[in-house]
Amino acid sequence: MAAIELTGLTKDYPGGVRALDSLELTIADGEFFALLGPSGCGKTTILRTVAGLEQATAGTVAIGGADVTRLPPGRRDVAMVFQDYALFPHMTVTDNVAYPLRIRRVPTAERRAKAAETAGQLGLTKQLDRRPGQLSGGQQQRVALARAMACHPKVFLFDEPLSNLDARMRLEARTFLKRLQRELAVTTVFVTHDQAEALALADRIAVLSDGRVRQVGTPTEVYRRPANTFVASFIGSTPMNLLAGTVTADGHVQVGDARLPAPAAAVFLPGGTPVVYGIRPEYVRLVAGPAADAVSGEITVVENLGSSQLVTLEGPAGTVQAVIPEDTDARPGTTAHASPRPDRVLLYDPDDDGTLL
Ligand code: ATP
Predict the structure, then answer these.
(1) Final residue belonging to a domain, choices 227, 261, 290
(2) 38 Cβ below 6 A of ligand 1
(3) Ligand 1 pocket residue status of 17, Cβ below 6 Å
(4) Which pTM does this prediction carry?
(5) Do residues 249 and 215 share a domain?
(6) CB 15 near ligand 1, within 6 Å
(7) Where are its TM segments located (predicted)?
(8) How far, in Å, is the centroid of ligand 1 from the Cα of 115?
(9) 20 CA closest ligand 1 atom index
(10) DSSP alpha helices (H): ranges in the chain?
(11) How many whole angstroms separate alpha carbon 199 and alpha carbon 187?
């Protein structure tokens, strides 16, 4: 069992930077877990603290039920893959992969065989005698993975594992990584600032800001029901529309001059309650003519997304974006009417840090 439990984890760096603030996080055994958040939110610090490369200022790190907070990295049974892969440039693939076994004083023949076997599992058999400089980015990444796998650690830690690959390689490596993790079933924590990557790969995601966890959930949960406006605007290929509105006496929401449908919960809010009206652009459609349940505005921008178009409307309700089919006619400068899909509307509390109502 190699669940990871972070309890009250705080990390202060010299100079008064609080990188982690009483963080609580439990990662299940065998889980593929993403740490997602904007630059500087503390993702790498969490990873380094789990690895033992940073000491926590307060709080504890437990792996497989054992408190490892004060253990050095070498005694935690974790393997970390760094963003730049940190391969030894003068060593061959075999020697790079065998390196951690050498540190553990595994006899030469045994470690070379083990390294060749692991590298083979990752499709590197033909590259065993090459040096990192003679490999593609994707191959270098696999060498780094093989090196991490060679010691059969309890936990894998990946810091932005795909960031050095070009867009196409990234997709390939993503699928590869997901399959590998399924096969190995080793608890894996990976850091990314790319929400699409987190949604595609992870069993569960922790969304972070300012050293705090803002939501933990499956990709579906954080996409469908973001717990606050921060998560709502961070997850999704286009951010959720967040419009200032007021609950009406009959349980709708007044947004500008439109009276929009609201979730059933709105009925329990007193008329006049200010809310943030959340609807993803994917769940907004353009309708003909002005309608009570649609916001009207002028189309200011139309972006071609390939299979769809992202349309931006400016009107009395503010700025609203809609994803519409690629064959729908939408022209900048014309008036359009945008209607939200009622069952996908979420209301947030503007007075409580944008928490889901
Ligand atoms: P990025 O996505 O940019 O890598 P991150 O989410 O991984 O960011 P961290 O690298 O964990 O963030 O940094 C968290 C905060 O701690 C940031 O404000 C950063 O400037 C600060 N920080 C990180 N390392 C140090 C250090 N060695 N000394 C001082 N401050 C640091």
Answers:
(1) 227
(2) no
(3) yes
(4) 0.90
(5) no
(6) yes
(7) none
(8) 33
(9) 14
(10) 43-51, 93-103, 108-121, 137-149, 167-184, 195-201, 219-224, 229-234
(11) 17
Q: Which domain holds residue 291?
A: 241-356
> Tokens 């009925």 identify what position?
267
Q: Which amino acid is at 331?
A: R
* Residue with the two structure tokens 């990444």: 141
Q: Whose Cα sits closest to atom 2 in ligand 1?
A: 39
Residue 330: partners with Cβ closer than 8 Å, 6 or more residues away: 286, 299, 302, 309, 311, 324, 336
Cβ(161) – ligand 1 distance below 6 Å:
no
220 and 180 in a common domain: yes
| CA 235–ligand 1 middle distance (angstroms) | 21
The ligand 1 atom at the shortest distance from the C-alpha of residue 37 is: 6
Q: Does 277 lie in the same domain as 146?
A: no
For the chain, how many structural domains are there in total? 2
Ligand 1 centre to CA of 218 (Å) is 26
Give Rg (Cα) of the chain: 24
Does any ligand 1 atom lie closer than 6 A to the CB of residue 42?
Answer: yes
Ligand 1 pocket check for 40: Cβ under 6 Å: yes
Tens-binned pLDDT, residue by residue, of the chain (357 aa): 699 999 999 999 999 899 999 999 999 999 999 999 999 999 999 999 999 999 999 999 999 999 999 999 988 999 988 877 889 999 999 999 999 888 888 899 999 999 998 888 888 899 999 999 999 888 888 899 889 888 889 999 999 888 877 787 788 888 888 888 888 889 999 999 999 999 999 999 999 999 999 999 999 999 999 999 999 999 998 999 999 999 999 889 999 989 999 988 788 889 999 999 999 999 999 998 788 889 999 999 999 999 999 999 999 889 999 999 999 989 999 999 999 999 999 999 998 888 999
ipTM over 0.90: yes
Determine, yes or no, domain membership for 123.
yes
CB of 127 sitting under 6 A from ligand 1: no
Task: Work out whether strand 78-81 and strand 4-13 pair parallel, antiparallel, or are unpaired.
Answer: unpaired
Are 9 and 104 in a shared domain?
Answer: yes
